[in-house]
């Protein structure tokens, strides 16, 4: 088997594996500040619209994830900026 044929076979197996995974239609971020809504499923990834619960605004362009686990990790990590300012305590 040639290297190019092997590469194509591996890519096909990866696509098949990812197409069998279930992508959630919608999930909330850990603190409920954002909603991840499924926009499009492709053979090896899925695109999600990120919606701000408070304003209803969508993130421009959305985000693309390769696996549902990657999506869940992102939903767990995303937070809204809290504002305010931090003191550097220089000279104290």
Would you write up a description of this structure?
By secondary structure, the chain is α+β, with helices and mostly antiparallel strands. The protein has a domain at 24-77. Helix content is 30%, strand content 25%. It contains two helices and four strands, in the order αββββα. Strands 1-2-3-4 form a four-stranded antiparallel β-sheet, covered by helices on one side. The longest helix is centred in the first third of the chain and has 18 residues, at 3-20. The N and C termini lie far apart (69 Å). The relative contact order is 0.17. The mean pLDDT is 86.
Sheet with the most strands, sense and barrel status: 4 strands, antiparallel
| Multimerization status | single chain
Distance between the termini: 69 Å
Average residue pLDDT: 86
- Strand line-up across the major sheet: 1-2-3-4
Q: What amount of the residues lies in strands? A: 25-35%
Indicate the radius of gyration in whole angstroms: 19 Å
Structural class: alpha+beta
Shape: elongated
Q: What percentage of residues falls in helices of 4 or more residues?
A: 25-40%
The helix-strand sequence is HEEEEH
């Amino acid at each position: 088997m040639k290297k190019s044929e092997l590469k194509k076979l591996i890519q096909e197996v990866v696509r098949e594996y990812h197409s069998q995974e279930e992508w959630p239609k919608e999930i909330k971020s850990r603190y409920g500040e954002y909603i991840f809504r499924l926009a499009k499923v492709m053979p090896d990834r899925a695109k999600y619209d990120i919606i701000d619960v408070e304003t209803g605004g969508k993130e421009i362009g959305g985000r693309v994830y390769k696996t549902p686990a990657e999506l869940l990790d992102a939903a767990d990590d995303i937070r809204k900026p809290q504002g305010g300012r931090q003191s550097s305590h220089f000279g104290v």
